[in-house]
Write a structure and sequence with these properties.
The structure is a homotetramer.
Chain A: H1 5-15, H2 18-25, H3 32-42, E1 61-63, E2 66-68, E3 72-74, H4 87-97, E4 102-104, H5 112-120, E5 126-130, H6 136-148, E6 154-157, H7 202-210, E7 216-221, H8 224-232, E8 237-240, H9 254-267, E9 282-286, H10 292-300, E10 305-308, H11 310-341
Parallel strand pairs in A: 3-10, 4-5, 5-6, 6-7, 7-8, 8-9, 9-10
Antiparallel strand pairs in A: 1-2
């Protein structure tokens, strides 16, 4: 059955302490981007093909040599032990079981090595999301640990030089227990772990060398010119994202930003970075994806894969690892169903299935 | 008087068991296409002509040599005995009396031959809708029976390689009584009657040969390129349809899809299929048509005729054959009235009467 | 003070029998054009000029040699004695006192000659609206009487070859007392007075000769091509109208239709008809105008003058002739105020003050 | 923390007498421009840059040689003593403390010289807004006093040749105490102080000579052609404004008007006036700005600085000078935060950060 994510969220809301629910669910400013992210996908009409043989539908793909069973991937989110005692380890294991990519946050509340082991056991794939911290030595140490633990790519978050001001904060902010900072350990100065505000395109190369050549993706890109600059600086691709409406409020919804970015990387000069899927720089997207039809619309507009954030947290809160696995297989099933109805037997058939105009 | 279809639906809803009403009324996914189908027609403004002689308005047309008194036609819908004991036989007879085309579903709950006889008596026209089933022999047998019983054309449904997941299903699905499967009879394997997922353009030719040369239409086309491919493969035309919002949710509303498809067939290369009305491939449309003004807008945008589905079921449930006949003559009257007010004395005057822009 | 037309309508609704209020207020079909007419003006943003000398604002104009103090004119509406015992005589006198043009309906419930006298006394201007009736002799007789009584132009209603079906009719239709048919008198056959459905462009010339050369306008034009055809057939201009949403429902709102029609007559070939204002064919508009800003938007989009219908009926019902005069001077005052704020000292300064795009 | 202006307004509404709240909050006509001003900014999506060094964000700017710490400026509003006993003196001092520009209204309820002194003490900058009154001698006297008191520029209000008719006036209008007319004193004829309706482009030069060469800005410009005419007549720039929706209702929202005006002055012929920021005529904007993201959108669309009106009145009513200072520093902080998230380290980085399309 198609997962009903709205219902899942209602259940999680009832289960979680209010400040934790708000911490996950909320956005910055007036939450206009938060709402618009969801709404924008629903305004993308689909243009299905008919009379294609869809007796078998294949959602699998290959990313830089790694096979995945689904383009539905888990976005990096912070402190998952706030949602469930097993936190990132559970989520990562569930993703691996579902054949889905998992991205581990710098703000993980589980040890990097434990997550790596949880993914390796079922033979999965994970990437490491990097906040460049004020203390770059600390940052480099984490990256090296992640690579050693099996991260297959690095994701540089570029849209958070400062922390977005959340609407729902009320003084009674979420207090993250000290025990959750398992990867950095006690620091001489808490400020060292804060995000650096002076990260630039040059840091793509720095990360790339730290990673020993594994792909570096830049997350948080909404502009075609920035996407081209990332690739020119060595990125293997970009993730079109506005941080789920948690950073700059009124940033363009990702469903509107995706196609121009994908077009710029498709039409741009040959990238300097490592060749992505189909020999090109790869474009990913997140933000507001809540159903198989949303995933299809995103792939149709040029995304290689699609990241899901909050729904994974609701599934984790309600059902632990099995809940996350069911969510991912459910969304993948919804995608496969939509692909069949749209005449797409494989992901290669998907581009172009979205209506180009903006309608409501 | 113009039929008030919203009121008719309310009456049918009160009469029918809830699960049957939901089975007919519901759509797939979030029902976005279901709602958008209706809304999209209402956003098409009309551009009436003035100072034309409309002292007599003629809604008649000829389709491949068959005369019809109205371009309002009955769309194929399944298991009409769920709505009324006389089912498809009543609907078909009513359409024939109204001078309207009737399309019989593969999932008819009346015997094909009984329907053929009911239409023949008042001298009407009917077509047979074809789901290609997994057992192609079974499919061919049904098609041959339909042709023998007088079907004047075949309608290949192309947008249902799998069954759309309905929003309103709740485990307590409609259980269709075994007695309704009157045309297939007891099967060795129920799966044989399920829709095949490997139907392709080549099947147009297969059906055409089964039909002995009667026109084959493809139903469920939303894309201009697919429409051209259908014609190139031998189709006499296409029905622009998204299956009433019951298959791929978020598929483009038909009011938006119609004009580009009509344009593609008008401007495309000479079709290989049999010549349709005015020597060209014919374009039809269904989905969300609820008033004479909707019919006029559809014809103005390039449709040869317009299919109506759910309203026929409500009329059948509330009034049997007379109810269906009143609905069809009422809608035709509403069309004639709108034509007079728009300065169109015949259907040939209608193209171009719709405002090209999308407004609300 | 600017007249509050919404409040005036509420007062009239309370005063009038329900079926009479509904007869005036209602529209055809689903009343979509009725509602859209009003809404469409409010979506036209104004683009005021600054730093113009507006110490005196002049709303006067000249139409075919006749001076008017305001471009706010009274649209023809039927049977005004349903609203007030003095009916058209009161309305016409009030318009003349306000320096506004009055158009008398063929369906007047006062004698043509009485209306002519009521306008002549204060030195006003009136036109006669013509429904071509099945009995053309009867039609011609009425037109000759109107011309003899002082009508300065003829308005051929072209959008009513049949009567639009009203949504609010409930069997209990307004029964117009026989005494109201004061101009046709007892007829051998009531059908003789029904509107003819075979009126064509040729009737423009017929009316012109009946009128002895006074201007003939065509009312109900929404299409640029029809407007050009009217002028080519001898019309002095057109009134962009959809009959207040009472004829073809879903006809284009007049605020959307106006600019293309005005553009077509401005750019078209030299008209064969008599020269209108500024030596060109004149374009007028009605439908949904409820405030001085609406009038300004209409003039800015190319109208020479603007007709108001229902608000006049509400004013007549609530206040008789003085009520109508106050409404017309109030709307004119609202227009003058808006002109001053938009930097327009005279009507010649108004074209171009509306924003070209469609926004909400 | 980002100031919550909606909450501030609610508090002010509870504090102030209703007629004073309505006097400030209301707009003209149906208040369509009033509402649209606010809504239009929220429809401007932002297009942030990533991977820029924003470790220090600078909101400062220079206007004709004067340094300001923020592009958030105080719009001229009348009779501020209605909101708070200290009136304009408090507001002006608060702006100076915040490093923000203050514009004093001709309708100030504090003496011009007292305001000048209040700004001079913390070393701030203020401009004088000029209503050209019927008595030009009186006008000239006020302007000379303002210049003598330290006004750094003159702002000619051009959109108020007459007073807009307010929707919320109910006979029980605000009666401004005679003691508030501190700058004009008792006049032989009250009409002398009314706004002149014959102000033209020539008055720009008159004001410029009265001001001894300090910049003259024209406020109330919505059209590119008018903006060019202002500059050609000697203006140093324009303020895109519709008077907060208080003059011509249905005037274009400023968020829609800004970019075309900025484009016209950027692309136009070399201005005759004094060179503004970056050697060009300066474009400012007001109307509906309620958050740092609105300010960023305005600057991105070409504004040099942004004026805020009603929120300053609410802050003044609720908190006097400290309240105003907190509002201005709060909005500036919100802007700086948004700039950091958009990759803009200084105002020079801001142009182009807004999405060109109109979306909702």
């Amino acid at each position: 059955m198609v997962p009903d994510i709205a219902q899942l969220e209602r259940r999680a809301r009832a289960l979680l302490p209010r400040e934790i629910y708000d911490f996950y669910a909320g956005g910055s400013g007036r939450e206009e981007t938060l709402r618009a992210n969801v709404k924008a996908w629903r305004r993308r009409w689909l243009l299905p093909h008919v009379l294609r043989d869809v007796s078998s539908v294949d959602t699998s793909l290959s990313l830089w040599g790694t096979a995945l069973r689904t383009p539905v991937a888990v976005a990096p989110t912070a402190f998952q032990r706030l949602a469930h005692p097993e936190g990132e380890v559970a989520t990562a294991a569930a993703a691996a079981q579902a054949g889905a990519l998992f991205v581990l946050s710098t703000r993980s509340s589980c040890r990097i090595e434990d997550v790596g082991a949880a993914v390796a056991e079922p033979g999965g794939t994970w990437w490491f999301q990097v906040y460049v911290m004020r203390d770059r030595g600390l940052t480099a140490a984490l990256v090296r640990r992640a690579v050693a633990a099996g991260a297959a790519a690095l994701v540089l978050t570029a849209d958070a030089p400062v922390i977005g001001r959340k609407r729902r904060d009320r003084g009674e902010d979420v207090v993250t227990p000290a025990e959750f900072f398992v990867n950095t350990g006690p620091l001489a100065d808490a400020g060292d772990a804060e995000q650096a505000a002076d990260v630039t395109f040059a840091d793509i190369g720095w990360l790339s060398s730290l990673g020993g050549g594994i792909p570096v993706l830049v997350k948080g890109v909404l502009r075609p010119d920035d996407a081209q600059a990332c690739v020119a600086a060595g990125a293997a691709g970009v993730i079109v994202s506005n941080h789920g409406g948690r950073q700059l409020d009124r940033a363009l919804p990702t469903a509107l930003a995706l196609a121009p970015v994908a077009g710029a990387l498709r039409d741009g000069a040959a990238p300097a970075g490592p060749a992505g899927p189909a020999g090109r720089s790869a474009v990913f997207v997140d933000g507001g994806v809540r159903a198989g039809e949303d995933v299809l619309a995103a792939l149709a507009a040029g995304a290689v894969a699609v990241f899901v954030g909050r729904p994974v947290l609701w599934a984790l809160a309600c059902g632990g690892a099995p809940g996350v696995r069911d969510l991912l297989t459910g969304l993948t099933g919804g995608l496969a169903h939509a692909m069949a109805l749209a005449g797409a037997a494989s992901l290669a058939d998907v581009p172009g299935l979205a209506y180009p105009g903006d309608t409501d």
